[in-house]
Protein 1
Amino acid sequence: MPVRLVIIGGGPGGNTAATVAATLGADVTLIERDIIGGAAHLWDCIPSKAMIATGGELSELTRARAMGLFAEGHLDVDALRERVASIEDHLQASVRQLLESQGVRLIHGTGRLQGPREVVAETESGREQLDADFVVLATGSRPRIPDWAVIDGERILTTREAYPPQEIPEHLCVIGSGVTGVEFTHMFSALGSQVSLVVSRQQVLPMKDAEVAAVLEDEFLQRGVKLLKGARAKSVTREGAVVTVDCDDGRCVKASHVVLAIGSIPNREHLGLEEAGVEVDEAGYVRVNHNCLTTAGNIYAAGDLSGKLPLSSVAAMQGRKIAEHLMGLHVRTHRHLDYEKASSAIFTEPEIADVGLAEADAFASGRKIRVTKVPFSANAKALIKGDARGFVKIISDPATGVVLGGSIVGRNAAELISVIAIAVTNGLKVVDIVDSLLVHPSLAESLAEAAW
Ligand SMILES: Cc1cc2nc3c(=O)[nH]c(=O)nc-3n(C[C@H](O)[C@H](O)[C@H](O)COP(=O)(O)OP(=O)(O)OC[C@H]3O[C@@H](n4cnc5c(N)ncnc54)[C@H](O)[C@@H]3O)c2cc1C
């Protein structure tokens, strides 16, 4: 009899676990209450990047003037909304098709545990009880809403209500300057909004390399974004079309809209965790071990619910590792997921991407490292494209030459970081990058130069 797997949540964590387990021969049922593809497709990665792409094209038009091309950009918000929706629909249909082609049974409903080996699905047509050898919980997370703000869905928004927008806000106040906050700042300023960004510390992206954050701050300032550094929002109120954000240092912003980007909380309520013996940590995330197994021996957790790195790519990788583990494949091929080697990107302009060891962390721990940095201003392709902002930084072990990490700020950083990510994951040395024959002219040449 095949292994019976029930998965709750159809985002990247859940749907990847489903596809891989079904490919490996499991009998898989996936319960999703909203859309297959999850928050990643509906609210997070896809709509934000689709809107950022439109803003990027507007910036290209401005840059094109230096190349002798004069064209005016006019933003049609309805066309933008339609495009975002059609990308979402297309991706959702592809994931659904993939799951169905692998024989995964899809249930549209809400799932909950009823003990370690039993799951209940509540659907429009009633209640279904499902027996399972293994369960994967992949219910994701949602934006955190503080008690000092009431979301009205019109002018006081979380990232979920902010797009696709009915109109481009005249003046948007973004609260929170982590990855989501800076992406929203970039997105709406590129689309024509005046933006004020409330930054609780002295640097945007407080968890990132100071040099990287400085490039972005300069870019924001050049575009007229107002940075309120060292300010914490303490209340958000609305009077008609004006939203007021009051900060704890006495400053206040009057804007047409406000978006809160101050983190997320796990979707763990009503999941029956306690009955099934699944423990959560102090912040409410499900505790998992290195195989993503929870404290209940046959229940796994993937994605944002597991409180590891809140990235779609990580959720999907966890889903794959879980499927391999429960199907016994790890005995032959399993390599534990090393979150410290996950690459991530921030889709601002310029783009920012990094992977592995950060310079500041190496210094803090006293570890000896070699840091090499090359600006894109010396790269032929960057000059040809009219965008030579940013740099490549590679961190390696001075004794062995093994690549430990790196950051890239600049055009296509999210793509280029893959080279360093492959080196970091596989223990490659700087010489392996230097000795690779790369295309000329290409942005990747700066990677070889930085590795040299
Ligand atoms: C604005 C924004 C932009 C982002 N951009 C990126 C990006 O560019 N790249 C990146 O890697 N990450 C990005 N992320 C993070 C990424 O979206 C998440 O890390 C990812 O969605 C997590 O995947 P998941 O499978 O854990 O959950 P989700 O994608 O949240 O999916 C969980 C699913 O579970 C369903 N569900 C919940 N409870 C139940 C239940 N009881 N029964 C049935 N179904 C249930 C939900 O309906 C949902 O569909 C972004 C996040 C935000 C907020």
Protein 2
Amino acid sequence: MDRTRRVAVFGVFALVALVGAACVPLQNAPSGGGAVIEQTFRYGPFTLGPGGDATGSPAAGMPRPTGAFGLQYAKFDVVDENNVPFSVHDVHLHHVVMTTSARQDVLCPGRAERFIGSGMERTPITLGSPYTYLVGANDQWGSTYHLMNETAPGTPAKTVYIRYTLRYQPGATAQNSRPVTPLFMDVTGCGGSEFDVPGTGGPGSVHTKSATWTAPASGIAVFAAGHLHNGGIDITLKNETTGQVGCIGTATYHENPRHLASIPACVMHHQVTAGNRYSVTSRYDNSAPVDGAMGIYLTYAWQGTQ
Ligand SMILES: [Cu+2]
């Protein structure tokens, strides 16, 4: 850890960005977890020569704040030894997803819960009080990560860290907040997350991949962030029972060289109904092959009744 500071209480800022007809009003809200602390952590270093990559899945050992708290925000980056972020054209964060020993993944029982993550899109995960992700004092954090150095052959090796900035409420409890459950909605289901786009469809063609789940409990979905790799067009979260679209993340790109730049996330307050069917659909450009593509929505829902 290299930085700690106290930031303002964010209040119910999430509610100013409500979108869509499926919104429900916030009612009977608890007071929330109080003051927010911001802290930045680094994991590494990795020494990566040109074309080199680093992958790992440690079950524990990712640095985290001490004590129990409610997590409100997470943003990932890749930086050098001086904390300077790399250009996305030089060192590429395929993805990092954090796992916890505390719970099993709701949609993939038997696996550790995957609760925050990011990729090239670098979307910050943002929960608005009273919604929070509760972390126990003794929960171990692990991860799955993949980093790649894409600098030209012959250039010097780089020292690379995964850096993440967290905002959290030490005072958050299940009584003063609404604890959210992360739903790792992967178009490969509970597979290895990667699939190949054949790239054989010709100019303008689209490769589509979907998965569908039945909501195990009713509640309110409050945030959804999509993850795609280069070649991704968009990713959609939809209630198939009602036909309502919950979130569409359309990828934007840097050019020369072309690299995925962003996938806007959705701050929402949408009713989730037990037994309804929910789908995630990723779309990729099918005019060029993509090996190891991904399509994931990390969605946070409170399982409760207002
Ligand atoms: Cu990925």
Protein 3
Amino acid sequence: MPAEQSSDRGRSEQPGAAGSPGMAGSANGSVRPVASGAALPGAGTSSAGIRLKGVGKRFGNVVALRGIDFEIERHSRIGIVGPSGGGKSTLLHIVSGLMEPDAGEVDVEGATSAKDRLARCAMMPQRDLLLPWRTALDNAIIALENRGVSRKEARAQTRPYFERFGLDQFENVRPAQLSGGMRQRVSFMRTLVAGKDVLLLDEPFGALDSITRAQMQEWLLRALSELPRTVLLVTHDVEEALLLSRTVVVMSARPGRVVRTLAADFPTDASRREIVTSREFVDLKEQALEAIG
Ligand SMILES: Nc1ncnc2c1ncn2[C@@H]1O[C@H](COP(=O)(O)OP(=O)(O)OP(=O)(O)O)[C@@H](O)[C@H]1O
Ligand SMILES: [Mg+2]
């Protein structure tokens, strides 16, 4: 199905769901973005969300990140775009608590130590990293098992997600028998059922063709509207960042710095086609691409 036919963007969204406040669709079809969800740099402090202040990281002589500042409210979504090698994955590792910065402060829902940040974040890596010998269901329960939940209980908790994610009847199938998009959904499910409030997605759809990718973007928005989370999404695709995030942070080449912050909260009742062809979207895309340089 071509992306343009996917006109149900956010159709299943519920009141109060991510992306619903601040809609700006108008009678003339304008799909103006609204900066409602995520705070822009310097726009106050929110201990409930994520805040980075002056974050820097160096690996030997390589300065990966320098002076990174941004802030995101709880259950909002921020997209991070920038050139390869600009420190985006490093940034996710720092937020997640897998790594400490050399400089600056990181606050994830009030947690500042690496251990406490780790407890609040779940990461979805670029490659799905599903274990080939485990069924889809047993791949999805790994985080729960790691937390000490019995396999029987973890399976019972996770099984209902398969229907919700369009994977019913695929619980007992091995990853090799799933399509790329299905594997990504199992991988996302695994990230989600970990029960963490913060999701760090590193190029989640990077390996998919453009049609599957567009479908997965729609699907992700719906999933997040039903199960709101705070999301940091790293992507090379500016259009994807603008469609999926409320705020897009453009990073420079190494050493990675924030060079531009764009409000991209498009109305959830507009179709994907309406959004991507709107003047507002095209303008923002242009601004982001210009900032990337
Ligand atoms: N563990 C590490 N040890 C040494 N150098 C590292 C390490 N992790 C990252 N780097 C270096 O830091 C820089 C930023 O890497 P990072 O993976 O964060 O970039 P990126 O923006 O995610 O790139 P891409 O878009 O290609 O995924 C690179 O020069 C990389 O070589
Ligand atoms: Mg990376």
